Amino acid sequence: MDEATLQARIGYSFQDPDLLRRALTHRSAGPQNNERQEFLGDAALNFTVASWLYERFPQEREGVLSRLRARLVCTEALAEIAEELELGKLVYLGPGERKAGGHRRESILADSVEALLGAVLLDGGVEAMQGVIHRLWEGRIADLDPRSVNKDPKTRLQEHLQSQGQPLPEYQLVEAVGADHQRLFYIECTVVGYDPVRGEGSSKRRAEQEAAQRMLACIGVEDD
């Protein structure tokens, strides 16, 4: 995995490679870091996604659009994209942060995605940045359903168990197979009183959500 591969994956080649390098530099690595690019990328991403949602769902109220946007740009979603891009392999970290496993930390991965978008904006302009966002978010936006925006399976399962006075579910990684850029994760969800169920997905988060959905079905909790 190198910077050339990353550029191929996002569909954009930097004219100024220093902008890309800074986007991948965490603040623990020194003063020339990605915080300013992260600030820019965060604002640009929110605006772009909000505009798309406004156009795609003309009948939805502001509250629904806000929740849809939050689902698309939350830390978990950004970290998931970072995992798909294998950004963790390229992020420059200070010795202490690296030793602590910072290249796997969700917040660092999410911030790096925002910084990357900010770098594309600075290097190629608005259209270039929106092209990268479209490439990385297209499938996620296509899968959006306003009717299911309120709560994801993990949240619904947790709230159901809490309402019944039961212990919270446990999630355990059972297996991860495939090449780094095509990894498939298998997560087991365990709830007291029920047989464990498994979910699979291209990220741990997706596998956990699928496992939670299957557990909800076993328990007999209907969709909202």
What is the secondary structure topology, with strand pairs?
Blueprint: H1 3-10, H2 17-23, H3 35-56, H4 62-73, H5 75-85, H6 95-99, H7 106-124, H8 126-142, H9 153-163, E1 170-177, E2 184-190, E3 197-201, H10 204-219
Antiparallel strand pairs: 1-2, 2-3
What can you see in these coordinates?
Its cofactor is Mg(2+). It is an enzyme of class 3 (hydrolase). Homodimer. It is globular and about 55 Å long. It is mainly alpha-helical and 224 residues long. It is built from ten helices and three strands, in the order H-H-H-H-H-H-H-H-H-E-E-E-H. The longest helix is centred in the N-terminal third of the chain and has 22 residues, at 35-56. It has helices at 3-10, 17-23, 35-56, 62-73, 75-85, 95-99, 106-124, 126-142, 153-163, 204-219; strands at 170-177, 184-190, 197-201. Helix 7 crosses helix 8. A hairpin with a 6-residue loop joins strand 1 (170-177) and strand 2.
What features would you highlight for this structure?
Ribonuclease iii, N-terminal Endonuclease Domain, Chain A; 57% helix; 3 strands; 224 residues; 2 domains; globular; Double Stranded RNA Binding Domain; mainly alpha; 10 helices
